[in-house]
Design brief:
This protein has 238 residues and is α+β, with helices and mostly antiparallel strands. Helix content is 35%, strand content 13%.
Length: 238
């Protein structure tokens, strides 16, 4: 359970979503935790305070707070399940479900799908990639990914086939002393999306943490290395 935090002063003018978020922070959850619970980017939680957003999440956050305070539920993954039952998509003036930027999961009939995130999304767990991985798992697809981090974060030299044999693309070296390396491809078979989805679930929905853990477990990066860019690719096995 995360340590308790004091409620910030001067919050009398907060909207309801921000007040609920404050109470969850008092209970020991970070804004990043709250973002995972409502399956959104942490930047949106910040906008509860700065841009008066969050009205669509009030019902979900109220139920989550009740689950914490009276239901004895503390795990982020369980609270996310509680929240999911009370989050509804916005509708357009015609009554159709509104599109949410960055959240749509597009996988073609051949199973091809791609999702990319940068530094800000990575810091909040790359949650925008979670639906892509979950959908790939439900369709029994294969999966590969590309990461970028500082050269010093890798344990093997550039181009090492011990690190990533049969990569789809060569190692990409950048002027800022970072490298992109790809893991898995259609030629090598890639990874089972269902297995990877289980890793993400075990990490509380944090895609960044799941990828980082795999890279550390398989002896590819330093434990303190930071992922700066992440791309997920899927396809249907032959």
């Amino acid at each position: 359970m995360p340590p308790r935090r004091r409620r910030p002063a001067g919050r009398s003018q907060l909207n309801e979503a921000a007040r609920l978020a404050d109470r969850l922070q008092e209970a020991g959850y970070t804004r990043r935790d709250i973002a995972r619970i409502i399956d959104r980017d942490a930047s949106l939680v910040s906008q509860f305070y700065t841009k008066n957003k969050g009205a669509a999440f009030v019902a979900a956050l109220s139920q989550v707070l009740a689950a914490v305070e009276t239901g004895g539920i503390s795990e982020v993954a369980e609270l996310a399940a509680v929240a999911a039952r009370h989050i509804t998509r916005r509708t357009t003036t015609s009554g159709a479900r509104a599109r949410v930027r960055g959240k749509a999961v597009l996988i073609t009939p051949t199973g091809t799908g791609t999702g990319r995130v940068g530094t800000q999304a990575i810091a909040s767990g790359s949650t925008r990639l979670r639906p892509l991985i979950a959908e790939a798992a439900s369709q029994d697809l294969r999966l590969a990914f590309t990461v970028r981090l500082a050269k010093t974060g890798y344990l093997h030299p550039s181009g090492s086939r011990t690190d990533s044999p049969g990569i789809r693309r060569d190692v990409i070296q950048r002027a800022d002393h970072t490298e992109e390396r790809s893991y898995g491809s259609a030629q090598t078979g890639g990874f089972d999306a269902a297995d990877f989805a289980r890793r993400v679930d075990s990490a509380g929905g944090d895609v960044t943490a799941a990828v980082h853990q795999w890279l550390v477990e398989t002896g590819r990066i330093q434990p303190d290395a930071h992922i700066l860019h992440l791309e997920i690719r899927t396809w249907r096995p032959r």
